[in-house]
Amino acid sequence: MERIPILKMSGFLLVSIQVDMHDQLAMQLQDDLTNRIATSGARGVLIDISALEIVDSFIGRMLANIAAMSRVLDAETVVVGMQPAVAITLVELGMSMPGVRTALDVDRGMALLNASRAAGDTGHDDVPVS
Fold it and tell me: How many CB atoms lie within 10 A of CB 27?
């Protein structure tokens, strides 16, 4: 089974999705990423979805789940590179992704993570875990 690589950079985990996501791959990514957060002690996760042209409701929920699991493991999630069509689709589906911060590109996403780390804040103190 194919896997999406997870790279560690400066205390953060970087995930660049360069293939079409199918349900099984999304679930595998969720498992792999939560395990890596737990073993590495990463305080932030940056997920680059710039290569994704289509995100359905399942993939959208998986991204929200990844962010929720990351929060429980004391890591912030930033999604970068969202295509306009993907953003439109998520809004039309009524998908809310609480706890997921977004940025236009990897540089801006890393800046958000670095700013949160410098402030000693993961950005989710007020987000309840349910």
Answer: 13
Establish if 53 belongs to a structural domain: yes
Q: Does pTM top 0.90 for this prediction?
A: no
What stretch of H or E contains 31? helix 23-40
The enclosing domain of 66 has a CATH number of 3.30.750.24
In a domain, 43, yes or no: yes
Q: What is the pLDDT of residues 45-59, one digit of tens each?
A: 999 999 998 888 888
d(CA 11, CA 8): 7
* Distance, C-alpha 123 to centroid of its chain: 14
Average pLDDT, the chain: 88
Residue 16's Cβ-count burial label (10 Å; 0-12, 13-18, 19+) is: middle
pLDDT of residue 1: 61
Tokens, residue 4: 């999406």
80 lies in which domain range?
A: 6-119
In 31-130, which ranges are E strands? Answer: 44-48, 76-80, 100-103
